[in-house]
Write a structure and sequence with these properties.
It is built from four helices and no strands. It is mostly helical. Helix 1 (about 15-40) packs antiparallel against helix 3 (about 60-80) and helix 1 packs parallel to helix 4. Pfam families: DUF5658.
Length: about 120
């Protein structure tokens, strides 16, 4: 797709936007969630975010999954509202954050288990 040509709203989002949303869901949604739960189950590993730590202690999977879903709904609404080409920044940001957080969590888990 030509970056200078906006996607046609009648035909749906561009392939780039779809690919970025897939990466965002895979890493920010699933990857972060899974690595957070795995890490939280290892003795000596703690959650840095006070909100997530509270949710894990109180309600675990249900609350954290609900929080993730709410974040996705909010960012999806922003993505639909913001005009192209700026809208591509929404799934791009979530994808980059998701990859970074999943990689960080994986490193913490490996350090706790191996090191």
């Amino acid at each position: 797709m030509n970056w200078r040509q906006p996607p046609n709203r009648l035909t749906g989002p561009s392939n780039t936007a779809v690919a970025l949303w897939v990466v965002a869901v895979a890493f920010f949604g699933v990857g972060d969630l899974v690595t957070t739960f795995v890490g939280y189950s290892i003795t000596g590993v703690t959650e840095l975010s006070p909100v997530v730590k509270l949710l894990l202690e109180q309600h675990a999977l249900l609350a954290l999954t609900g929080l993730k879903a709410a974040v996705f709904v909010g960012f999806f609404a922003i993505w639909k509202y913001v005009s192209w080409p700026y809208s591509v920044g929404v799934p791009l940001g979530l994808a980059l954050l998701g990859v970074a957080v999943t990689a960080w969590n994986t490193g913490v888990i490996l350090t706790a288990v191996i090191g």
